[in-house]
Amino acid sequence: MRVIEKYNDSLHNPYWKFQLGPESYEVKDTPRRVQAIKDRLAADPRFAREKAGAWPEHWLTRLHPYHDYIRNTAASLREGEEFFPDLFPGEGARLPRHVDRPLQGGLWCTDAVTPIAPRTYEVAKASADTALTGADHLAAGRESAVYALCRPSGHHAGPRVFGGYCYFNNAATAAEFLSAGGRVAILDLDYHHGNGTQEFFQERKNVFTASIHGDPAVEYPYFWGYADETGVGQAEGTNRNEPLPRGTDIAGYLAAIERILEAIAAFDPRYLIVAAGFDTHADDPIGGFALQTGDYAKIARRLAALDCPTLICQEGGYNLDILGDAVHTFLSAFL
Ligand SMILES: [Zn+2]
User: Fold this and answer.
1) Ligand 1 centre from 215 Cα, in Å?
2) pTM score above 0.70
């Protein structure tokens, strides 16, 4: 299996602590996450590493209205600086020409935990390029399954705003590319609901979106991910959410997988994109499910049985001790 990588992951190293309600969090999106995955896959000759290509900017600008804001803000910062918005004008706010760039932050970003640093644009674009390069292999019929080692993650970045450690939506960008060749289904397996991905396609009936995640009544992203969000207008029926309670183990998880696979099979996609987060592991410091490393083989075998060309995009997963094994176990089932 091809493993698509970007050129230099160490450039993206945000670090800060923040308070959310009564709990304080430390951001754990470190470059060591990617290194742990690379190290594990490098030990298995069945995986071949390949550098992502550089894709034209229009693949990002056609989906992300905040593309120029991220690029220009990053370019305006000095080395070592990080920009956090601190003013959030709310839904429907205007973007007058005279508003300074720092004040635009809250128009485009949902939170104060997704900073822009001097290299943010470069690394976020490279992450999307990784997904596009993988998608290109599928479109050309060269592979039946490809793994895109994306970081930063993408699934919280949507058609209006970005946030949740995500800047550009890698899986959605790949889906936009692949949808020229037929229907696409995106299955999000990260512990957190893929709100950005859902919003991109909730009015599009040629892209089916589905997500299995911690119940948003108690988990980020809170305002999205409920079971009654099923698509909008002509696309009614093309979104499926499976919010599950804390502590869900493989039995409950596989039951949700079966329900979603039935819907995906009925949709009959030409391509499948898996937004693969591994913060569903019992030992993940952020997630709340009880999956074990071996369980990822059971999940992946069910997906592989769809027999649909599949792009696997990396999303979350924050326990460096188990992340490499979890990814390796998941991908091996597609070989
Ligand atoms: Zn997550």
Assistant:
1) 12
2) yes
